[in-house]
Design a protein that fits this description.
Elements: H1 2-6, E1 13-15, H2 19-28, E2 33-37, E3 54-55, H3 64-74, H4 81-100, E4 115-116, E5 126-127, H5 134-148, E6 152-156, E7 159-166, E8 169-177, E9 180-185, E10 189-191, H6 212-219, E11 224-225, E12 230-237, H7 249-253, E13 257-260, H8 278-290, E14 295-298, H9 307-310, H10 312-320, E15 330-339, E16 342-344, E17 356-358, E18 363-364, H11 376-394, H12 418-424, H13 431-445, H14 452-467, E19 491-492, H15 494-507
Parallel strand pairs: 1-2, 1-10, 2-6, 10-17, 16-18
Antiparallel strand pairs: 3-5, 4-5, 7-8, 8-9, 11-16, 11-19, 12-15, 13-14, 14-15
Helix pairs in contact: 2-5, 2-11, 3-4, 4-11, 6-14, 12-13, 13-14, 13-15, 14-15
Amino acid sequence: MSTEISALAGLPIIIGGGAAGLMTALQMAPEPVVLLSKAPLGAEASSLWAQGGLAAAMGDDDDPALHLADTLSAGAGLCDGAVARRIVHAAPAAVEHLTRLGVAFDRRPDGSWRLGLEAAHSRNRIVHATGDGTGREIMRALIGAVRRCPSITLLEGFEARSLIVEDNAIRGVLAVDAQGQFVIDTARVVLATGGIGGLFLDSTNPSGCYGQGLALAARAGAKLSDLEFVQFHPTAFDGPSRPMPLVTEAVRGDGAILIDDTGHRFMADQPGAELAPRDIVARAVWRRRAEGHRVFLDARKHPGAEFAKRYPVISAFCKMAGINPAMDPIPVRPAVHYHMGGVAVDIEGRSTVNGLWACGEVSRTGLHGANRLASNSLMEAIVCAQWVAESVKSASHGPVKARRTDVPAPASDPSAVRPILSQGLGVLRERHGIGRAIRALYPIANGRSAAAGPALVGLIMAVTAWRREESRGGHYRSDFPESLPSAAPSTISLAEAFDFARDILETESLSVGSVQP
């Protein structure tokens, strides 16, 4: 192995095998690049599970300016307008690029795009593939392209445990495989590790997505931004399976409605009704359930008999549960679905650590603001991968020799963190619940156990949730239900988060408790 690893020294390393990582690796060609994936490609990637599709202004009645306006509106005042404008204008070309890579997007008999409608979009602009199997189709094409690309060295079953940093610059990656621990010398690393859904009990994300990239970046000294903003999808399938199967928003775009167990359509009087922004719908469903009701998505009339044809994936798992969506309402509940926060990066994906980039859900570009517009995430990953790749290729990368480290790098286990975050940082949040989460997470994050990495990510999320004393987008404080007149991103480092948590625990002893020495 030593010969193989030494041969990779100096090459850029991409960590993560989802859409963002795969596309970045492809965009790097013909420059050699190393792609590290803890699991077989796609196995633990949220991209594979994406049902909704990819948002792009492809219709004759649409325009990137309209797409931008919808994005900014959904983002609740926290989007970076210049970044969002550049990304949505690049989206149509990204769809065409994926088509050239072999993605078979759905089209009408005349060859035009079959475009769907999702919440908070003013136009039908969601590009789908195989109905509700868009992520699977995109990943199929990208995985095939990566495996065929001679400039990509693919290391499956290899997990990055830490980044080696000297003088705020990347010098290597400490990784493990079945044979043991090793260091790859490099001055260029791209994090494409996905989101944080696996830190919660109820999530539509793979359980293996629990913020590993955020932990790597935080420990390397990178700034993180907006970690308090978590999007809860309002219509996860309400059953025993974990992760929870998703009932895509496109079903509501086709006319399905939300009802409770009495048949009452409780969203009817809300602006946008079932297609209001996701945070509004999720809170409405959450409150209805808190009142003792079950909630269902009623697709019996729309799309009705066409359901199985339009949504084969959803139809299949409903059938396994004994439900026929054309005849029976589908039980649903909110679940963690997407993280708007991430590593603070510029438009080219550069973090505050030299030689460290981030792409996809692990990054915070400023596109999503406080509340991601539906189907903007896959689009962001595909579009930004090109700019990240160009930036990585243009960066200086002379020979490096990492300072070797013998510090053990334990495998992470988020199981102890899940109940803490689920209780303290759910759909509805308040001071005491967030404080209890900080109190529980602080000693774990300060330790060396397998839960330390997941706990430090959860701690930063809880600290930023505590500090934001308002309700905005995916962050709702029942004790501060109104939005402030203006808002700024909550950029923070790991050291700052620990300091703030320590201050909270020392000054809030009556309501939260004190840290034992």
